[in-house]
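Lab notebook, design round three. We kept the backbone fixed and only want residue identities now. Task for the bench partner: fill in a sequence for the structure below.
Input structure tokens:
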């Protein structure tokens, strides 16, 4: 198993099954293609996406269904091909990136969730064209996990 240095977690040994490739990168971070999914038990259901190419970025995410049960996932043209596997709900992990602000509630990006194919371990940011959801949906969870 490979080791990676992280800003927030120190040096970690990451199982290969926790590594994900974003062939096109992420908007604003197009040079970062490989991430490790880090899900400490004490932080559940939070998932951290740590770049394996540098100690940052490290994004905070939540499974979309923990924020909005019944979320209607939309994949754009080419997203299924990029994911590289059969597209069915059980094979996909859909994550909303979380933004923590100094003032106001934390928000979730439901407009452009990260979609990861569990078998191919490839991902895309599936940005909706219909604006059905917000890129800054407030999270109303007073019981945030204590992570360290």
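Proposed sequence:
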């Amino acid at each position: 198993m490979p080791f990676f240095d992280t800003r927030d977690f120190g040096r970690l040994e990451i199982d290969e099954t926790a590594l994900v490739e974003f062939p096109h990168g992420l908007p604003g971070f197009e040079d970062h293609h490989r991430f490790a999914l880090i899900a400490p038990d004490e932080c559940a259901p939070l998932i951290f996406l740590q770049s394996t190419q540098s100690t940052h970025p490290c994004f905070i995410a939540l499974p979309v269904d923990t924020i909005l049960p019944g979320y209607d996932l939309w994949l754009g043209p080419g997203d299924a091909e990029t994911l590289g596997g059969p597209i069915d709900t059980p094979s996909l992990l859909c994550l909303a990136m979380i933004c923590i602000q100094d003032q106001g509630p934390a928000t979730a990006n439901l407009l452009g969730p990260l979609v990861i194919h569990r078998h191919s371990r490839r991902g895309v940011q599936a940005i909706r064209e219909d604006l059905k959801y917000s890129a800054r949906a407030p999270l109303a969870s007073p019981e945030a996990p204590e992570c360290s």
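Keep this in mind before ordering anything: The two ends are 23 Å apart (CA to CA).
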